[in-house]
Amino acid sequence: MFDLNLPLAERMRPTNIDHLIGQQHLVGEKGILRKTILSGVIPSMILWGPPGVGKTTIANIIANHVKSPFYTLSAVSAGVKDVREVIDKAKRQSKTILFIDEIHRFNKSQQDALLGAVEKGTITLIGATTENPSFEVNSALLSRCQVYTLKALTEEDLLGLIDRVIKNDKKLQQKKITLKEHKALLTISGGDARKLLNLLDLVTDSLGDKPVITDEVVIDIAQQRVAIYDKSGEQHYDIISAFIKSIRGSDPNAAVYYLARMIEGGEDVKFIARRLLILASEDIGNANPTALVIANNAFQAVNIIGYPEARIILSQCVTYLACSAKSNASYMAINKAQALVRETGDLQVPMPIRNAPTKLMKDEGYGKGYQYAHDYQGNFVDFEFMPDEIKNRKLYDPGKNAREEELRKRLKTLWKDKYGY
To answer: Which of 139, 293, 377, 407 is most buried by its number of CB atoms within 10 A?
Structure first.
């Protein structure tokens, strides 16, 4: 008899390809992965997609269909020793499948330990990752695997999943559930089917028999003491707008408050970090070049760390950017430059600064008359680099802050009154 004490996500995990929610581009009637599974000839593969969209389920469906020995490792806790133990067992078996969850967390030596066994067919590797495998899986291993991209589950998919489990799970059938509202369930779970089902399980266990599920009840039980944060709707844009404007306005208190709103609402950590990276250039720029370095390091760090600890890194970055001097001079410069390009079209690059890699080009005058700045005092020579039609045009006007005033002073010293610095 099936263990009703297992988490709902495990109790209701599909074992048949026809019961999988979503991913119809892969497992639908004409899906390439369906054809592969039904053929029984399974290649090593990487399943790439957001959390809770069916990567582990697909691996289990494959193992059930081909009736192969099936081993599971988590890259978070497993090492080379664990990989080699599975490979040793596989040598005494046939068609062994090794499923590695979060394979992007394996370092190069751990991934290399898989290479020989995958290449020889000792094991069929199924790796699951939420990160782009082009960056996170080494090229030698990646070249030996098919990559299948899983899509985020739609609201329709998730509602269909809720309906299915309420009707078919024996434990939930006994409860006689009334699902009055679903927004909080979907919002708090963030599109992750596993989180969604386990949250549903938690809510129904907390309510007793004949539970009526409303958004208020779900938020209360999940201890989410914030307004529902709709990542796909208007509030998503309102919160991120308030967040950016608070940092731009040098208010670290409001900035970290809106950061907390996004974190509590389950906003994608990469989305937040990406916006900080843009802001560091757009709103701070050369007023404090270190801001871009910190934002970039924060972006890299949260990609490695993830929630919940990523919130600390984000908070450090947010408060630093909010407290920094501000300038949009670089942002305005590229806006002006692009407008000028659209207005004037493809102007000819002046002959002295054209590239002259061949004798013919040199004979045609390419590079003739170029003055090499390092040959002159102060590593500078007054030279016109712009096309003739727009010469002497100023696009970058340093901001009114200490660092850019230094840049302005240097430009004025170098170019005298040419650009009006």
So the answer is: 407
- CA–CA gap between residue 4 and residue 264 (Å, rounded): 30
For the whole model, what pTM was predicted? 0.55
Q: Is 271 part of any domain?
A: yes
Percent of the chain with pLDDT over 70: 95
- Is residue 32 within 8 Å of residue 24, measured between CB atoms? no
Question: In this predicted model, what pLDDT tens digit does every residue of 311-360 receive, in sequence order?
Answer: 999 999 999 999 999 999 999 999 999 999 988 888 888 999 888 888 88
The span from the first CA to the last CA of the chain, in angstroms, equals 82
Please report where in the chains the tokens 């390419």 appear, as a residue. Answer: 366
Closest by CA position to 319, among listed 339, 294, 337: 294
* Dist. CA 278–CA 275, nearest whole Å: 5
Query: Does some domain include residue 3?
Result: no
216 and 244 assigned to the same domain: no
- Structure-token match 């002295």, residue found: 352
Q: Are strands 146-149 and 70-74 parallel, antiparallel or unpaired?
A: unpaired
- Residues 377 and 308 reside in one and the same domain: no
